[in-house]
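Let's study my pick:
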Amino acid sequence: MKKTKSLSQFVCQNCGNNSPRWLGKCPECGSWNSYVEEKVERQKKTAKRSSASEPVAITDIGSGSEERIPTGNMELDRVLGGGFVPGSVVLVGGDPGIGKSTLALQMLNDIGREKTKRGPSGSSYLYVTGEESPTQVKMRAARTGVSSESVFVLTETSVETILDEIEKLGPEIAVIDSIQTMYTEDFGSAPGSVGQIRECTAKLMQYAKTMGTAIFLIGHVTKEGTIAGPRVLEHLVDTVLYFEGGKDHPYRILRAVKNRFGSTNEIGVFEMLDSGLREVKNPSEIFLSERPVNASGSVVTPSIEGTRPILVEIQALVSPCGFGVPRRTTIGLDNNRVSLLLAVLEKRAGLQILGQDVFMNVAGGVKIEEPAIDLAISIALVSSFLNRPVEPATIVFGEVGLAGEIRGVSQADLRLNEAMKLGFTRCVLPKINLDRLKSGDNSIALIGVDSVEKAIEAFF
């Protein structure tokens, strides 16, 4: 029998950094009181060379053109890149109660129903929970309308037992809810620790790549909004999705931050109802449904998210500063970008706005980062500063440079088409984009501008 050696080390539960002794502050990520002692027993192994794998010419490797597994949910398929790739590992994170478990259960039910419509397939889908009992899962299933006979539920936390059951059942997709509750017998630390999360994910990933079963992992997030556990967890999996949106807001944004099989610019929009998550097929109409009438500081701009344009409302509130240092508060926008645009308006447009308190928000809870919304932010700030509303049927887009120039943006025709669908009749855009646009539908008036001063003149 091989001798085992007991190891004791301190591991940061935030980033996974190891230390032989306890540290108050992690030198890697800077978090305080995050080191936890982990005892690990490892067997001494003699190093030997494996002959299971040999170099192969890339021209001799098969293309692996396997069909994706569509989920039956257009928004989820959009974020995944067309559906699940067999053998892929997908990790989704989000705040507690935001709808991760509901999304996973509804997803399995939709896939099962789609397969049944096409005829008897014999496919099965497994939902593994380490946090709830089968009765609790059934209650959620009854509330959300999950009734597919091909969906199976397993209550287990041992990865070895889970893999045995997956091998017996042979499901196309297996959901693990959540990865923080799982443990492997090969690692001696407690479930939820950095070592356990890393080892469990590695075992599941190895099985998925070997057997072709798609694995859907649900992960908890820290107070900073990142998935709990080491960063290596995100490197192991193929796709990382994040659920955005507050629990007090009905809309949820599913965003891909990593995707080996698709674009990371796509987002999916869902609405949380009593009956579960419902996909929003026209996000622009939803985001603009509660837009105030004749209110200053409100501007609509088209933003490209992946392959589709979405119209969002930029809101600004500029008020006199009551203290010595003006406040800058932004939600859904880059705070540094807003500060830069304020300086451009002060220097190039002659507005005394830097000394004002500024509050900005993107209605609907979505986050926008592309520079094409610079002009909309600027016009919203000027509108609130002058207390003069922008015409409701007007959209604005364009990038603003430090010299006050308006630079062109990509896919201007897609942005205009989305605006015309929703009845907008006027658009202020970069002059260079106006010159490049083909003459077409005249239902929307186009105004080209090449500087911030001319853009302000076009509105006020």
Observations:
- Residues 44-51 have pLDDT under 50 and may be disordered.
